[in-house]
């Protein structure tokens, strides 16, 4: 539930991708499993989490703290995903909150579980001719572990 800042920066070289000048881009944030073993069972793992925590989400945006994000959305069926539009020419910071902890996905032994690493993955897209954000621009990720 703690809010963590991720700064969105336009790191294009001069003259690169001039077609996005003055346009908004869409970024999609996802919390996924870092370990390949858990990636294969991700759907079942998330369904189990949903069953144990009805009404909760894995990932949210702290909207009051965020700067420069437009039309933030959280799809009710995708508990680990949020998205928003932003202008690459303006200062943009998104504050995210992860509501699950790394030990929720480890087999319970007798305390002191190591906890599984997650990955925050960010995919950014630009608009196509039809006005849909489907043209991939950039992907980034970092590993996180969440504990209380």
TrEMBL record:
GO cellular component, one term: nucleus
Top-rank lineage group of the source organism: Eukaryota
Major subcellular site: nucleus
Domain called Grh/CP2 DB: residue spans: 1-148
UniProt-annotated location(s): Nucleus
A GO term for molecular function: DNA-binding transcription activator activity, RNA polymerase II-specific
Alphabetized Pfam families for the sequence: CP2 (PF04516)
InterPro entries: CP2 (IPR007604), TF_CP2-like (IPR040167)
Keyword line: DNA-binding, Nucleus
Coiled coil regions, renumbered to chain: none
Protein name, as recorded: TFCP2 factor
Origin species: Climacteris rufus
Gene: Tfcp2
